[in-house]
Amino acid sequence: MPNQRNRTAIELVTIAGLCALLFYYGLGSFGLVGADEPRYAQIAREMLARHDWVTPVLNGTAWLEKPVLYYWGAMISYSIFGVHDWAARVPTAFMTTLMVFAVYVFMRRFRRGSEMNSALALASLAGIIGLARAASTDMPLAAMFTFGMLGWYAWYETQQRRYLCVFYFFMALATLAKGPVAPFLAGLIVVVFAVLRREWKLILKTLWIPGIVLYVAVALPWFVLVQHANPQFIRVFIFEHNLARYGTNMFRHRQPFWYFVPVLFAGLLPWLVFAIAAFVRAVREYKGSSFHLFLGLWAALPVVFFSFSQSKLPGYILPAIPPFALFLGEHLWRRLDEGQEPPLWMTALHAVTVGTLFGGSLLTVYFVLGLKPTGTALSIAIIGGVIAFASVLAAIYAKGLRVFSVATLLPILIAFAFVIKFASPAIDVRNSARPIAEQLSDFPGVSQFKALAVLGAPRDVEYGLNFYENLPISNYDRGEIPAGPHLLVAKAGSEVSLRLMLGNRVKKLGEFPPRKLEFYAVQAK
Q1: Is the pTM value of this prediction over 0.90?
Q2: Which of 95, 322, 441, 525 is most buried when burial is the number of CB atoms within 10 A of its CB?
Q3: In 285-423, which residue ranges form alpha helices assigned H by DSSP?
């Protein structure tokens, strides 16, 4: 018993260390990227400043596209750490950490022996790492959805109602994370599972009145309060950002039907080969295993559902990624238990995947900056990739699946640390508005300007400056030209047209070549 406790303690410390590295290390090494990260971070800041825990607000105006769970997390983070870009990412990192531990606990209880591999795989999947480190609503949904689905299956196996309470409680939080898509997907999985298992009463048993009351008690109050404060909420959130987003291309995110297949494969790296092998094996055996059927439906139905959507973004299928880690963990455990080593071709293909990722990581700076790698850099990347490939292949061939996770994780962790340490400045300068805001603040006399505008700048620059300057951003392209003195961030080559428009009110301050932007000071009319 003491040995078992020691082993458990070591496993928990290992998982905690892995999560600390993958989800928290260098969390602020580059600024908020894209349009969503700075926008969500700014909304949480304004809600905190207003002491308003109900209505998401951006620049003083209600922003009703998403529910409130992420904003609550960011508000708490700001209250503890202060308003920083990295603090905006802490809630998603924290929720991902809890999800990894939940998978460990679940598999230890229901598939003992597979818990460690499942947790390690989940923590190190590319799709999980990427969105665990982003200030967004995708990971809060995926984490809460995972808690809920694990709770439902635990109830199915044990018939203990406390697990059904877990299901309803976390589905309520998932609804607060991103809306009705959470209970819809959960209901779809449960119904199809019941039909394929021919357990027709299972649907009615799942619709447990106390559980429904718990769901309503957790999820409904915010929706009632936000609708009361903002009568347009149902129209904006339900009809525009749920139904219209799914059924039309009004938000201009159209992609081909097969779009989520490569997205899923990318999200499963570096474990792709064995994750797919585990999934295929489980599909073949689903008739004899309710667990495999459940995981298979959980993995497949969200991808199928969103493939029919007219609007597609990579984060949509994040809830479908965790079951692959459970598949993988159990697959490795079963092979070990049965004394089966994987075929050499599968191990070699897995090693090629790891080696390619390792070598590619050494060229990240060139990829980000859009530069052609030098001959020396290319040679180093090839040599590094070959060494990683050979190390993984030799370790698994010599020691078998007992060292599979360690052999895979070691080069991946080195590659990850390299990217965070050495590629972050390039990511910052090409994908974040933080260095733009820093350069703006360096110009003499800019403190006298209390307004900021953009012209021809990408959306991520506009929203990024909104967060880093904590100012509403006027947009010349929308006819929002401030009458008073203001700073202007414009696309390169705008000086002639600006002088025709504004005369000698405008003075060029400098430029930001990496994003092809220019800075101007504009005096009052």
Answers
A1: yes
A2: 322
A3: 290-307, 322-338, 344-361, 364-369, 375-399, 404-418
